[in-house]
Amino acid sequence: MVIANDIVDNNNNLLLEKGITLTETYIARLKHLGIDRLSIEHPVLENAEPIPIITEDLRLELTLCFKALFTMKTEGIFTTKLQTMYFRQLSTTTENVISQIGESMPTILNAEIRQPTTDNVSHAVNVCLLSLVTGHYLKLPRPALRELAIGSLLHDIGKSIIPLIDGKPLNSPNMHPVYGRDLLRCHQISSTAARIVAEHHERYNGSGFPLGLTGKTTHPLSKIVAVANYFDNAVTQTAAEGRPLPEIIENLLASSDILFDQNTLRAFIHTTPIYTLGSMVALSTGQTGYVIQNRAHYPLRPLIRVFHKAGHDDIDMANQPSIAITDIIEERNQESCSS
């Protein structure tokens, strides 16, 4: 694996030159020095380019539409004009998102669903797309998908209108689901979407907030958004802390019918790729390779391509239980050398 650019420290001292072959020793040393991002010259990887689940233009439209609402001042967001200006546009945009995701479902495990979460806006878009993928997998009817799209995209809209005094929330930040629900009700957005917003932090065993609802009393669509919201936040947190991605799936599985509904959780895991196609990973064998295909029902056991002087070998981890991915050296399109 060849480094694409010179790597320097904070004082601009050269650590590794462009063109040097990356080894496990170099990776460990770079991490010790706090270097967690680098660019790798990728060998040719046929069929290992993740296909965006929706077009870039549609993702941008969805992002800008939500951002316009989220960044609006509290006194403006409750005005009646917004119902025409933004919520109607949001309805049209999400309709197109639902259609494009439906077309992508046959290859969903090798698609790019989420992108790095950098703020509340990108998080909302990720949660919306992850939720809709699960909804399609569960074969929800179109009206339910519409409710899911709006509710999941606006799940944190209440954070934009929490009253502040001296820069601090007037009430507990855990009340943002209630503020969001009230906002949707004010604009006469569907009661189901408002309920999703209100319930996305509720947990199966009643340990969530703001009402402590149990699995039996939480709306089925809210359960989907609860898992998607947890997953996107967990991916961001594990990446920041340098912990392995498999921990997320392990924690989700351990919380089945405790924090999250089992059937919803199963559908989510079966349709959500953990490793992005083209990502470079370290294996327990000491080898490094690239993820070239994800496996249905085996989110942690993708097909790995390992290059060597004579060519390459493909390791089907679904049939190699003794081999594990120990680290993500570089995630495709994110230039990260830690998981």
TrEMBL record:
Query: Which positions fall inside the HD-GYP domain?
Result: 98-284
The record ties this protein, via Gene3D superfamilies, to:
Hypothetical protein af1432 (1.10.3210.10)
User: What InterPro entries does the record tag this protein with?
Assistant: HD/PDEase_dom, HD_GYP_dom
PANTHER family tied to this protein: CYCLIC DI-GMP PHOSPHODIESTERASE PA4108, CYCLIC DI-GMP PHOSPHODIESTERASE PA4108-RELATED
* Protein name per UniProt: HD-GYP domain-containing protein
**Native species of this protein?**
bioreactor metagenome
